[in-house]
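Hi team,

Below is the intake form for FadR family transcriptional regulator from Caulobacter sp. 602-2. Please confirm the fields before the structure is written into the shared record.

FORM ID: S-0412
PROTEIN: FadR family transcriptional regulator
ORGANISM: Caulobacter sp. 602-2
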Amino acid sequence: MADRRLFEEIADKIADMVRAGEFPPGSRLPGEREMSERLGVSRVTVREAEIALQARGTLRIRAGSGVYVCGPAGSDSAGAALEGALPTVSAFELTEARSLFESEAAALAAPIISDADLAKLDDLLAQMVAAGEDDARSTAVDREFHMTIAAASGNRVIIHTIKTLWKFRMEDPEVRRTHQSICHHDGDARQAEHVAVVEALRRRDPKAARQAMRLHFSRLLESMLDATEQQERLELERKAAESRQRFLMTARMG
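The structure came back. Fields below:
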């Protein structure tokens, strides 16, 4: 298809590597950075491809461990995608899933969204500005914005799925902390992205609506990656400082 999404093409390339034996069953895939450099795409696209391949039963993503090639059908892969109805998830994993489902919800909603829903979205955009740095209010308005688009898709399975994803977003303490750490610094960008989604919906353009929503989540994922890398650097600096202090104390005592 002409508008075939990039992550699907990357998923097919990784699947071809698996079939060719480059990554045998049970092996761990290289890290995101190495795979992104090898395939010439962003780390976000690699992660989306890996999520898609997990859904196919080709890969298994283990939080905090890595991405592994599944064994033959009936072994490790059989229930990998269904482990636990309410798993513990990271903010990154949740945002990836939201990107996949909410982008398609926007595309489905575009041709059929009502004028009343568009007016509601315009009002919610204004409420987002008014909420400012009030995290609780901002999050509630953001949820209402995204759920309005989900409802406009007319697909009850998608609506239920997105509602469940938002349950994680609202109730998981670690997910909330991660969002709080980045959302106060990207208010203008986030507002502009929401406006772009509404404008695409107003034009009844499914492709543009999908792309606008995907760009919103891609930027959010990149912010999370940057925040994670910064946290890791700070942790390394903290450990180095502790080691230096111990060395200096030992040297003085000697």
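SUMMARY LINE: The beta strands are 59-62, 66-69.

Thanks, M.
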